[in-house]
Amino acid sequence: MTRFTTRRSSLLTRAAGCAAVTIAAAACFDLRPAPGLARGELIFDTCSPCHGKDGAGDESLGAPAIAGAMDTYLTAQLERFQAGIRGYHYQDAEGLRMRPMSRALITGDGDVESIVEYLMSLPIVDPPATLDTGDPEAGEEDYALLCANCHGIDGRGVDNVPDSPSLLHLNDWYIASSLRKYRDGVRGAHPGDASGTTMRNPMASGWTDERIDDVTAYIMTMQRLPRRIPGPPPEPLPPVDVDPSILPEGVTVAMVQEGQEIFNTPTGICYTCHLREGVGGGLAPNLTDDVWLNIDGEYENIVRIVTDGVPQPLEHPGFMAPRAGMPLTDEQVRAVAAYVYTLSR
Fold it and tell me: What pLDDT, on the 0 to 100 scale, is given for residue 33?
C-alpha cells in the first residue's frame, strides 16, 4: 500500500520533535540556572523548533515571529495559553499546539520572566511581506479609525498596556490569519479574554477577507521602527469631584469612584473606545458633552445600555458588547453607569 506524505503528517512529526525536546528539557530542570537570561536561553531550545533559532517564525507551522514583540505582550500571551484562554478552539490548530507547550515548558517560578527576558535579548527581526494581496491605501483608513487607538498611529503599541502590542515586527500572514480568527470567533471568544472581545467587536467583526488584506498590507508599509522603550505609567486619575446632590437616588460618590477606576483601566473595558475620562474618539462618542445618541442620558438608561450593549451604533463604528464584553457584576455595571452619568454634568 502506498502511504502519501501530507502537511498534516509533517506537522505531527515536528510536534513530536517538540515533545521530545520538552522531555529532554524537563529532565534538566533540576540543573537549570536561576531565573534570568541563561534559564530563558535553555527554555528557548523548546521553542525554536517552531519559532526558529532567531525567533523569526515559521509560516509552515503557523508560528509567528516573536523576536520583536513587546515583553508585556509576550508575558500576557504565555499566561493566557497556560490558563486556556488562548488555544481553546478546535479550529485553532496553531493555538492548540501552543497551549500544551506553554503548560509543559513554563512551569517553574521565574520561567515566564526568563523566557521573555531571553526573547527581548534577541535581535529584532523584520519578516518580509509574503502576501501579494491587499490595498494599503484602503487599509490606512480602517487602521486609523479602528486600530490606532490601541496599537498606536505608528503601530508600535501603547506603553504599559499588554493588550495594545506593537504590530511592526510580525509576519503579514500571521496578522491576516489572526484577524480572520478574531472575525470567525476562533480567537477572542473566550469569556476570560477581555482584549479578545475588543478585537472581535468592533475591530474584526464582519470584516471581509479583502478588508483584512487591506489593513494587513497597510501595516506592512509602516516604517520598521525599533522596539518601543517603556514610558512612565499614565498620570493618576483626578479625584472624583462631584456634588452628591446631583446624583440619582441610590447612587453614591463611592460608586462614582469605583466606576471611574473600572472605566479608565487601559486594558479594554471602556477606555479603549471612549478613551480616558470618556472624551471619545474615532470608535465611540464623547461622553462628556450633553449629546446622547442612543439614550436620553438618565441614570437607569445608562445602566441598561451598559448591560445590553450597543449592537448597531448610530454614528460610530464601535460595536459595544453587553457589559463591555467583561464579566462585570450588576454592582460594577451600576458603578460604571454612575461615573458616566457624572461626566456630562
Answer: 81
151 Cβ neighbours under 8 A, 6+ residues apart: 157, 158, 164, 165, 166, 167
pLDDT digits (tens, 9 = 90+) for 165-194: 899 999 999 999 999 999 998 998 888 887
C-alpha cell at 21: 525536546
Question: Can you give the residue ranges of every domain in the chain?
Answer: 7-121, 136-221, 244-343
What architecture does CATH give domain 244-343?
Answer: Orthogonal Bundle (1.10)
What distance in Å separates the CA atoms of residue 219 and residue 173, rounded to the nearest whole number? 12
**Crossing angle (nearest 10°) for helices 111-121 and 37-44:** 90
Whether domain 136-221 has CATH 1.10.760.10: yes
Residue 231 pLDDT:
63
Closest CA to 266 of 146, 159, 144: 159
Q: Which set of grid coordinates corresponds to residue 10?
A: 509533517
CA 104/CA 99 separation, integer angstroms = 9
User: The whole model's pTM is what?
Assistant: 0.74
pLDDT the model gives residue 105: 66
**In the chain, helix, strand, coil percent, each to 5?**
50, 0, 45
Q: Taking the CB of residue 205, how many other CB atoms lie within 10 A of it?
A: 15
> Which listed CATH number (1.10.10.10, 3.50.50.60, 1.10.760.10, 1.10.10.1400) goes with 7-121?
1.10.760.10
| Strand-pair partners of 310 | 320
